[in-house]
Specification:
The chain has 1044 residues and is of the alpha+beta class. Helices cover 24% and strands 16% of the residues. It contains 26 helices and 32 strands. The strands form seven sheets. Strands 6, 8, 12, 21, 23, 24, 26 and 27 form an eight-stranded mixed sheet that branches. Strands 13, 14, 15, 16, 17, 18, 19 and 20 form an eight-stranded mixed sheet that branches. Strands 5-7-25-22 form a four-stranded antiparallel sheet, with helices on one face. A hairpin with a 3-residue loop joins strand 14 and strand 15. Helix 18 runs antiparallel to helix 19. The protein is globular. 54% of the residues are buried. The N terminus is likely disordered. The structure holds zinc ion. Zinc ion (ZN) binds next to loops.
Length: 1044
């Protein structure tokens, strides 16, 4: 057992004692419940398909703890009850492994209610069926269908089919305004869509029971799809007009064409806006139901709490939802079913997601010189899905079923249940996520990696000098470099630093610690970039602090009188790559750049912005990067493990689509500060820079997603580069970057074995160690589409749709992209309607519960800058939004597409609680109100004209609304409860988000209100796009067309 063996050192010393994982000292402390959770649930995770598993004492003599007390002493919980998970909507209540296809769960368990909208009228008078959105005054258990939601009598227009009047929400035939339904507001109703006990939920009568008890006959009970329903689920492949038979021609897309002219009509108050599904309500309900709880990942196919919900994760065999989320947790068994429902099968993987302090960091496992144990055939890494057989001498791979020999050093006996007796001592056998130390085989040229380097490259042309940016950056770096990322527990960072300044030519600096003064070396031949010094360019900051500070002091003065306004750009990146190549390390370039690179050099760009292309076939060209130099640069960067972060300070068009190309293929980020002014934007920029420099990150990464037989990963979205169809290359991957993966069937999936996936990320740590980070996740499979719809996650779905739409717009006109989005949505919902809900009249809009707010997100997506097609928006801004969304995780796209609008005028200053957000609609604003709106990118404080003077005084230190200066951009620090509370809310928001946000203070009716209004996503978009209500009606119409 010399080299072999599972060296348990680093892993267990990392554990936070008592965090429910491995107790400190690894298995030696009987006082700590150790995987006690298995105790109470014989079906829990690592159980073999037989389901016979009983908990056993761990080899160290650990008694199986009581399930009820499992978290009592050692899990930090925000909430109260240790084990109060109501059965998750998916198959959580059933045994995770191999529950029989006809388990009682399918027939007995009451189903999640469907969201129903009854469209009684061609006039789009929407009302609720007795679904979950019941009259809140009625007790949740009151018999449904007797007291439907709409208490107002139906309008007298009679039961007409929805036809021409619905073809466009903005069409002149639009019904006259109707009185709002008399139903009471649903706001704040705690049990909406989330009855305390699903078991007690009565059947939904004829209208609302979404999942009929017995499985429908035939292939999942699926009826023959209507014409067009069999289209390719893959989104970009869909030819335009695939569903053309049902599309009413160009007019159909009217509402989404964007032109502001479409939007100029008077607002039509038709319905009570509370009557349509509410994102804030869904968020609140999930928080009420699952907030503050410990989410244990021991069940296959378990749907996690929403990203907006506060919960603690305990890894028990599946990766935390912070690392991986799926569009659905129950995959359809066959490709046909997947095709019919058109619900994309995807996972959003954020391999370096930040874990809260009360969750256990990943253990590092060392399998010695032989390296991590892997399946001989498919190369999957040792994980909880490997089944040990033959007395422990062999194991069967859960991914490819290959039977492998267990290496001698890894041999362990099995207990009477067939489990290895060391199961709970080995992270790779019992956890969803962990790391392996990689051997030299996993390193470039079989040589140990060097620690990465950060190179700061500052554009010192006239614009950046004049704005004060150069001085600001140099000042900041003096302190910021003390906070370079470091390995957990180490004193200082091993990341090396280097400095370059440039305009048309490049200046490299020798900052070797032995020097008294930094030395500058100039390279003016930018066509053949080389690094003029080997020694002294990349140094340790601590050692060279004096020389570096000297340099940072000098740089602003050296270029103070510059007249140079031209810049190069590609040679700057090239120089960075060459420097890393010379140093044989990976790293990151931080480039602070002002203008479009017009100097005569490789990668020279010209202004190609042309607003006339908007809403034409050629609009896509605005977003396509210029090929050639930049494409090659991306490849060079990726092969060197050189990530590029771009900080842009433009005063006009810079062709961001091209300049952002290298960052978005190298795991980098793009920050943009238009018309930068130090006083107004300095703090915003510095906050971004600090977060960016300090954040957790891995370098020179390559990721592979393996799956069990029957399906595979086919499509990848992210700040990534791909040389082949399987290896996802990332020059760097930080804690905020996510890769969205699409899966396709290549065979049948089995309900018994489910769908397993393993994401393996090989990377270099900030201290230069080569590691493998493994995330495993197991999903259910079902021949019933109702299972799929029940297990969907809207937030993950919209992430997938956003990324695929933003990619599709490079190749197709925006109008086509928007049509495809609507078509696919209509098909997903129509398929549910047809196969999973009880018979109902066509005039009802029936939405699956787990997808009921999907339309509001989709509509918001279509109104985002990239997809809206408005000449009023800057092309660079649109390109920027498109590029940053590509690497977003589920939290980020959720917030981006449904901002938080927080009323502050009534806040309880005595409490720590942030007021509950309200729906993003103008109707929620009040003249006497004050609201905070944030979407992760922008932050607004909106003030109504009648805002109480006392409040204005307390927050702004001016006597009234009228006294507020127009260009206010920050809050004064005042010593009163309102001011303190507001600033603390803002600070905590800023703290949570990946990037900094600049606070914009908006006065009602001011010109700046337009910026704010485009985030009120339930309203018509100021640059085009339908209101939520209109869009829902439009989608309903589309669904009906699909169904006929
Ligand atoms: Zn295998």
């Amino acid at each position: 057992m010399s080299q072999q063996g599972y060296v348990a050192t680093p892993p267990y010393s990392q554990a936070q004692p008592g965090m429910g994982g491995y107790p400190a000292g690894f298995g030696s402390s009987p006082a700590q419940p150790l995987y006690g959770h298995y105790g109470g649930q014989p079906q829990s995770f690592p159980a073999p398909p037989t389901g016979l598993m009983k908990p056993v004492s761990s080899p160290s003599g650990m008694p199986p703890p009581e399930v009820s007390s499992q978290y009592g002493s050692n899990i930090q919980q925000n909430g109260s009850h240790p084990q109060r998970y109501p059965a998750p909507p998916a198959a959580a209540a059933a045994s995770p492994y191999g529950h029989p296809p006809n388990s009682p769960y399918h027939t007995i368990a009451p189903q999640a209610p469907a969201q129903q909208l009854t469209n009684q009228m061609g006039s789009m008078n929407l009302g609720y069926g007795p679904g979950p959105m019941q009259n809140p005054q009625a007790p949740p258990t009151s018999p449904p269908a007797q007291q439907p939601f709409q208490t107002a009598p139906p309008p007298t227009m009679g039961q007409t089919t929805l036809g021409p009047p619905l073809t466009g929400p903005h069409s002149p035939q639009m019904a006259p305004p109707q009185s709002p339904l008399a139903g009471p507001s649903l706001g704040g109703h705690p049990s909406l869509g989330g009855h305390p006990s699903m078991g007690g939920h009565p059947p939904m009568g004829g209208m609302g029971r979404p999942f009929p008890g017995p499985p429908p006959p035939g292939s999942g009970g699926f009826q023959q799809p209507g014409p067009g329903a069999a289209g390719q689920p893959g989104y970009p492949q869909q030819p335009q007009g695939q569903f053309g038979g049902q599309m009413a021609g160009p007019g159909m897309a009217g509402p989404f064409q964007g032109g502001a002219a479409h939007m100029s009509g008077p607002p039509q108050k038709k319905l009570d806006p509370d009557s349509i599904p509410s994102t804030t309500q869904v968020t609140e309900d999930d928080q009420a139901k699952r907030g503050g709880q410990v989410y244990t990942t021991n069940l296959r196919g378990q749907v996690p709490p929403l990203v907006t919900t506060d919960f603690t994760v305990q890894d028990q065999g599946n990766a935390s939802p912070r690392f991986m989320r799926c569009t659905t947790y129950s995959f359809p068994c066959t490709a046909d079913l997947a095709k019919q429902c058109q619900v994309p099968l995807g996972a959003i993987i954020k391999p370096f997601a930040t874990l809260p302090k009360n969750e256990t960091p990943l253990y590092v496992v060392n399998h010695g010189e032989t390296g991590p144990i892997r399946c001989n055939r498919c190369k999957a890494y040792m994980c909880p899905y490997m089944q040990f057989i033959d007395g422990g001498r062999r194991y069967q791979c859960g991914f490819c079923n290959c039977v492998n020999e267990v290496p001698a050093f890894y041999f362990q006996h099995l207990d009477h249940m067939g489990r290895r007796v060391d199961l709970y001592e080995r992270p790779e056998l019992s956890l969803g996520s962990y790391e392996f130390e990689a051997t030299l085989d996993y390193c470039k040229n079989n040589k140990p990696d060097s620690p990465p380097a950060y190179i700061f490259m500052i554009d010192v042309s006239y614009a950046n000098i004049k704005s004060g940016l150069v001085r600001l950056v140099c000042e900041e770096l003096k302190t910021l470099l003390d906070n370079l990322p470091r390995e957990d527990g180490s004193e200082s960072s091993t990341v090396k630093v280097g400095f370059v300044t440039y305009n048309k030519i490049l200046h490299f600096y020798n900052v070797k610690s032995a020097l008294a003064q930094p030395q500058m070396m100039v390279v003016s031949d930018t066509a053949e970039m080389f690094v003029p010094l080997l020694d002294g360019f990349l140094v340790n900051f601590q050692e060279s602090r004096a020389v570096i500070n000297n340099l940072l002091d000098q740089i602003p003065d050296m270029f103070a009188d510059t007249n140079e306004s031209e810049t190069v750009f590609a040679p700057v990146i090239q120089a960075g790559v060459e420097a890393l190549k010379t140093a044989e390390c990976s790293g990151k370039l931080f480039i602070f750049h002002s203008s479009i690179p017009t100097a005569d050099a490789p990668g020279k760009l010209k202004n190609r912005d042309d607003k006339k292309l908007i809403n034409t076939e050629k609009e896509k060209t605005l977003f396509q990067p210029q090929k050639g130099v930049y494409e090659q640069l991306s490849k060079d960067c990726v092969s060197q493990g050189c990530s590029v972060d771009l900080f842009l300070f433009p005063s006009q068009y810079v062709d961001l689509a091209t300049m952002g190309d290298v960052p978005t293929h190298t795991g980098g980020s793009i920050f943009k500060y238009s018309n930068f002014q130090v006083e107004m934007d300095g703090e915003h920029f510095l906050s971004d820079l600090r977060k960016d420099v300090e954040k957790a990150i891995g370098f020179d990464a390559i990721m592979r997603v393996r799956t069990s037989t029957g399906f595979r990963a086919t499509n990848f979205f992210g700040a990534i580069h791909m040389n082949n169809t399987t290896d996802v290359e990332m020059a760097a991957v930080d804690c905020d970057k996510a890769v969205t993966v699409e899966f396709k069937h290549d065979d049948k999936l089995s309900e018994e074995t489910g769908a397993l996936m393993q994401c393996a990320l090989l990377y270099t740590t900030v201290s230069g160690q080569r590691r493998l980070r493994i995330h495993n996740l197991s999903l259910n499979c079902s021949a019933q589409l109702s299972e799929l719809y029940k297990s969907c996650e809207t937030d993950a779905l919209i992430n997938f749709f956003a990324k695929s739409a933003y990619r599709a717009m490079l190749n197709q006109p925006l109008k086509t992209v928007r049509e495809i989005l609507v078509n696919q949505t209509a098909h997903m919902l129509a398929c549910y309607r047809k196969n999973c809900s009880s018979p109902s009249t066509a005039s009802q809009l029936i939405l699956p519960d787990a997808m009921k707010v999907f339309p509001v997100y989709l509509n918001s997506l279509m109104k985002t800058g990239p997809l809206v097609g408005s000449a009023e928006l800057s092309t660079d801004d649109r390109a920027h939004q498109r590029l940053i969304a590509t690497a977003m995780g589920v939290e980020d796209t959720q917030l981006l597409l449904y901002p938080r609008l927080i009323p502050l005028h009534n806040m309880d200053v005595a409490s720590d609680v942030v007021p509950a957000p309200v729906r993003c609609s103008e109707e929620r604003l009040t003249d006497a109100g004050m609201f905070l709106l944030e979407n992760g990118r922008s932050l607004f404080l909106w003030l109504g004209q009648a805002c109480p003077p006392e409040l204005v005084q307390r927050v702004f230190n001016v006597p009234s609304f009228a006294h507020l200066p127009a260009d206010l951009s920050s809050l004064p620090v005042l010593d009163n409860p309102q001011s303190k509370k507001l600033r603390s809310i803002i600070d905590s928001l800023l703290d949570q988000r990946p990037s900094a946000m600049k606070l914009l203070i908006v006065k009602q009716k001011d010109r700046s209100e337009m910026l704010f209004r485009q985030h009120l996503v339930e309203d018509k978009g100021p640059h085009g796009g339908a209101s939520y209500m209109d869009f829902l009606c439009y989608v309903h119409c589309e669904i009906r067309q699909v169904l006929t």
